[in-house]
Structures are given as structure tokens and as C-alpha cells.
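Suppose you are handed only these lines of text.
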Amino acid sequence: MTLTAPPLEFDVLVIGGGAAGLYGALSLPATLRVGLLTKDPLELSASGWAQGGIAAVTDPEDSYALHVQDTLRAGAGLCDPEAVQFLVSHGGDCIRRLVEMGVAFDRYGEGLALTLEAAHSRPRILHAADRTGRELVSTLAEQVLQQSHIQVLEQALAVDLWVADGRCYGVQVWYQGQLQTWRARAVVLATGGGGQLFYPTTNPPASTGDGVAMAWRAGATLRDVEFVQFHPTALAVPGAPALLISEAVRGEGAYLLNHQGERFMLRYHPDGELAPRYVVSRAIFQELTRTGQDHVWLDMRPMDPHQAEQRFPNILRTCRQWGIDPLKELIPVAPAAHYWMGGVLTDLQARTTIPGLYAVGEVASTGVHGANRLASNSLLECLVFGAQLQHIEVVFHGVGGQGNDHRLGNGHLANPP
Ligand SMILES: Cc1cc2nc3c(=O)[nH]c(=O)nc-3n(C[C@H](O)[C@H](O)[C@H](O)COP(=O)(O)OP(=O)(O)OC[C@H]3O[C@@H](n4cnc5c(N)ncnc54)[C@H](O)[C@@H]3O)c2cc1C
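From them, the structure of the protein bound to flavin-adenine dinucleotide can be written out as follows.
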């Protein structure tokens, strides 16, 4: 006789272990039994790759009104103003909580060090050198692993949502060589973006848009899926991955040059290199079309070398691995697919249009990004909307209801386990 493990049951199943999934799991009431599953080992996510930092109003000389204004302007008039106000005004609480948890943001004297990024009217980006995502994710993962009410299941691939009678009851998962159906009173999609649908992309291999696909098959409403952000400055060396070279590099004095050595961005926008991302990406694309080249140049040489080594150790090390010393020579860069503004439609409590199904982080469309995300607003979004899971509605129900429509995604019939 073959013994098989019984199907797992949780109050809440969180799919994804990036910033949104981890912070969301930590925000859920500790009275709930939580499962957090990731298709890769926990340490692999786009969140861990984030370099620049987290945008938040922490400086008394800054204001919510300015951060809102910058976000709306970058979003090209297509943001939801209420969602933007919500994002900006809840950011400070999340940052305080991260500091209490031990996230080691860079300091300037007693205070938090802040840097400027494109389309921000003030320096408001908190950072930990150019490894902000790694610092954030490792602290959050450490916290999650200490919680007895959260069970982490790595290398568990969510394949489809279990939806019956219009409600989400769990997830179909490929785990330990078997397709299993795991039951939950609520399911949270935190599966990140879909950069791997494009080439080149700055995203890690896991960013294949699984959450959006599962939600779509289950009948959830999606929004703005056509809005994909291309980061202007990815490393463009033949054979090398499209390493992102953070906007913060331009915020701290690096320039873009074309093959004639001209600082061309000033021809396209009065803010030059610090124009919104889509403006810089389009300008580079136009330069490439005009000159027939496949890259422009990023010049970090105007920066103070000591400061550059302190702030951007990872970027410098990776460029040097590919034979370029940014403090001595120009870096070839070109745009690459980077961030998916659209996704699964949610309200301010991270609820999707399917009862029992929530979405947080890049997979969600909260309305804060409009047509173009403001730099460093995405980690903030992971935190602010992840925190809303504290209000999650966990319904006690007869799984599958009275009906017989026990669907896994759209149209796959299955019996409840
Ligand atoms: C190189 C780079 C630099 C960036 N820099 C910044 C920055 O400085 N500031 C900023 O705000 N934003 C930055 N971003 C964007 C930001 O990192 C992402 O938007 C954010 O981290 C998304 O977090 P997330 O938790 O939603 O998803 P992710 O961090 O991508 O995590 C997704 C999780 O879902 C899991 N998963 C996916 N599909 C499945 C499945 N089918 N089954 C089970 N598990 C699944 C994955 O294993 C992973 O654990 C950057 C992005 C990149 C790629």
C-alpha cells in the first residue's frame, strides 16, 4: 500500500516569499495558521534583487503632498489618487516597523540617510548600500521563520486556484513530485511580476507572471496589464545578464552619453537624467534608433570614487566581473523590461474580485502606479498593502459550498480533497 501525505490545510495560504508575501504573512493575525509557499528557495525573489531602496516620507522637510504629486506625475495621469494617498500616508508606519525588526538602513548621523531618484522632487529613498532588497528580505525571512503559526513550504509550485461557487478555497500545488490540493480559508497571491515574458529583462527567473495567469483563469478581474515599465539603464554587454544599474546612480551624479559623447537627456526633458523612467527609456530608444547603435553610455566617473564604492559596491563588483570598471570607463547600457504596473485588481484592503482571494505586491494592481511606476514605490507598495492583511476576513465555511462547481482555475473540475 502506498502512503500519501494528507492534503495540507491552512487558515491563510500566502503564495510567494518576496517582500509582499513575507511582510503580508507577518501582518496576518498570529491566531491564524498560515502557510507560505514559494516555488524557489525562500531567498530567491525580485525583492532580494532590489538595489535602489524604498521611497517614503521620513524627512520633516518632505511631505505626503509632494510624494503624492510625484507619484501622480510619474503615473502619467492614470494613477488612482485615493490609492496613492493611501500608499504615501501609510509608508512611515511600515518603515518604523522595519527599523524595529532590525532592517539596517544606511544612516546619516542619527537619522536615516536618504537619496534622490528620478522624478522624485526630494531625496526620500531609504537604502542599505545597493543591497536594500537583500537586507529587507533577509530580515523579513528571519522574522517569518521564527513564527510558530507560519509554515514555510519551499519549492512548492502553485499551479491553479481552487475556486468554487465564486469563492477561493485553496490552491493546487506541485509539491514533492505530486500535484496536491491545499485548502485555505483565504489565499493571498504575492507571486511578483512577469519580466521573464520579455527579453532582455532585469527580473529573476521566477518572475513569470504565474499569479496573474492563475487569477485570470479563476475569473478575477485584471487591470492595466498593458503597462510594463522598461528600466532605462540595464547593463548591455554581450553574454552578460541585463544587470540593473540603479537610478540612484544617476541621482548621485552619473550622466547618460550617446556615441557622440553628448549628454543627450537634456534635449528630451528639463530634468535630464532624472526625468521619469519612461521618458528616459524612450529617449534612449530614440537615440539608439537615430544612431543605429545598441546601447548608450552611463558615465559614473563624475562621482566621488570613495562615495561610489560605499554606495554601489554590488553594481561596481558586477560591472568589474564583466570587464568594465565604472570608475574609469563608460558603462554600456540599454532599456530592459523591469516592472509590471498592471495585474490583479485589488481594493485598498488587498481584496480581489473573488471572495477569499487577495493579492499584494507586484502581482496586484492597486492603482498606485498608473501607467508608470515612480522609482522605489514598489517595495513601499509591497509593505503598505501587505500590512492590510491584518484586516483579512477569514470565513469559516463548508469547503466548496453547496454547489458542484469545484473549479481549479477556469473550467478544471475537481472534487474537494
Ligand atoms: C533588479 C531589480 C531591482 C529593483 N529595485 C527596486 C528598488 O530599488 N526599489 C523598489 O521599490 N523596487 C525595486 N524593484 C522592483 C521590486 O523589487 C519588485 O517589484 C518587488 O520586489 C516585488 O515583490 P513581490 O513580493 O511582489 O514579488 P517577488 O519579490 O518577485 O516575489 C515573488 C515570490 O513569489 C514566488 N512565486 C512566484 N510564482 C509562484 C508560484 N507559481 N508558486 C509558488 N511561488 C511562486 C517566488 O518564488 C517569490 O518567492 C526592483 C526589481 C528588480 C528586478
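What can we learn from it? Residues 81-101 form the longest helix (21 residues). Residues 399-417 have pLDDT under 50 and may be disordered.
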